[in-house]
Design a protein that fits this description.
Layout: H1 17-23, E1 48-55, H2 62-71, E2 76-79, E3 86-89, E4 102-106, E5 120-123, E6 133-135, E7 163-167, H3 178-186, E8 192-194, H4 209-213, E9 216-222, H5 234-240, E10 244-248, E11 263-264, H6 271-283, H7 285-292, H8 303-317, H9 329-371
Parallel strand pairs: 1-2, 1-3, 3-4, 4-5, 5-6, 7-8, 7-9, 9-10, 10-11
Helix pairs in contact: 6-7
């Protein structure tokens, strides 16, 4: 459960089938107060227009896609031109320092939000900070999460006729060494097929992780680090592929997924016990199918999206007055010192671009003289 404190003025967003049918909106969360357009009137004409931008995210954009498509567009018409009134920040850069507006951090890594820079934050940590924070694991932001809604709990014996175990990881440099150690230890029993960039042993990276994992009875679903609340997409993808996750990472994983539906490893000292359990399940078909059939989700399927939408709507509906960072004192000084390196980077980049442009002109000049 989230640590966010709902004080009675917040209600989970309801999903109205009638409104979806009348407005032609896909099946996702929309607020009760949504004003359905009249006949001959476009949906967008009845929605509030807001200036909102995204910055400091990684190259992949599933979070931005999910927010635009399934949450923000249900209540607003998005205008992503500058200057923005609202900025949703990925926490992986300093672009946000260029803007003076309401800033909402949406953190996809194990980063603790800094409320000296962000007015609000959405992250993994179990923290409470007035109305400025909402705890949100990463896995519901993936489209493959919807596969859990169709996950079959009554399994059949055809699922026994699969290969042993899969492992799909790309980040080997910035991850806890326990991932490599467990992979190597489990491989002493049977070959573990690694389809990612890290420890790849199948001749190349897989194109579709879910389809790849469906071919195996087990999947090593380790996080890159262990931090309370840090639940990413890895264990969810194992469930979506109808395979048994072997999990290490979030010490409080039981708040997101049921312990009875996985093989859980607490630390390095627990590796041998876990491998013995895997071997037992691999050799006991009935026990394996019993584990595979366990319900996995703790909360209702729409729990995360509904409450995330409520959190964002409350901020945006309040407008610019909902800015919460202090304009004066130590916070202002701290932001000023952080902005200076960003300005210097812009100056340096400008000088480099100037030099490269002029060097290319000089090069073309001498090349022309040599051709004469």
């Amino acid at each position: 459960m989230s640590d966010f404190d709902f004080d009675g003025s917040w209600e989970p967003v309801d999903i109205g089938l009638r409104l979806r049918l009348e407005c032609g909106i896909p099946p996702c969360s929309i607020p009760d107060t949504y004003d359905a357009p009249q006949y001959g009137e476009s949906k967008s004409s009845r929605l509030r227009r807001i200036r909102l931008q995204f910055c400091d995210f990684a190259d992949f954009d599933h979070i931005k896609t999910k927010l635009r498509r399934d949450i923000l567009s249900m209540r607003y018409v998005l205008d992503e031109r500058s200057p923005p009134d609202f900025l949703i920040c990925g926490g992986l850069g300093f672009e946000h320092l260029k803007y003076d507006c309401v800033k909402i951090a949406f953190l996809s890594e194990n980063i603790v939000p800094d409320f000296n820079y962000y007015d609000y934050a959405i992250g993994f940590n179990h923290i409470s900070f007035e109305d400025r924070y909402f705890r949100m694991p990463l896995f519901p932001m993936y489209d493959t999460y919807k596969l859990l809604k169709r996950r079959v709990n009554e399994v059949d014996r055809s699922l026994l006729d699969r290969k042993f175990c899969s492992f799909v990881v790309s980040n080997g440099e910035h991850s806890d060494p326990i991932r490599r150690k467990f992979f190597e230890e489990l491989s002493k029993y049977k070959k573990v097929d690694s389809g990612g960039a890290f420890l790849n042993n199948i001749g190349g990276r897989v194109l579709n992780k879910i389809d790849f994992c469906r071919q195996y009875k087990f999947n090593i679903s380790f996080e890159n680090s262990s931090l309370s609340g840090y639940t990413t997409e890895k264990i969810m993808q194992a469930y979506a592929a109808q395979t048994v996750p072997i999990y290490w990472g979030n010490p409080s994983i039981e708040e997101d997924f049921r312990i009875a539906s996985m093989i859980r490893i607490s630390d390095e000292e627990d590796i041998n016990r876990a491998i013995e359990e895997i071997i037992r399940l691999d050799q006991d078909d009935d026990a394996y199918l019993t584990l595979l059939a366990q319900e996995c989700l703790v909360n209702d399927f729409d729990y995360y999206e509904n409450n995330l939408a409520t959190f964002l709507y409350d901020i945006i509906d309040g407008g610019p007055k909902n800015k919460r960072c202090c304009k004066y004192g130590g916070q202002a000084i701290l932001r000023k010192h952080m902005t200076w390196p960003l300005k210097m980077e812009c100056v340096i980049n400008s000088q480099v671009n100037f030099l490269m442009t002029n060097l290319s002109k000089v090069g073309r000049f001498f090349m022309g003289r040599c051709m004469v």
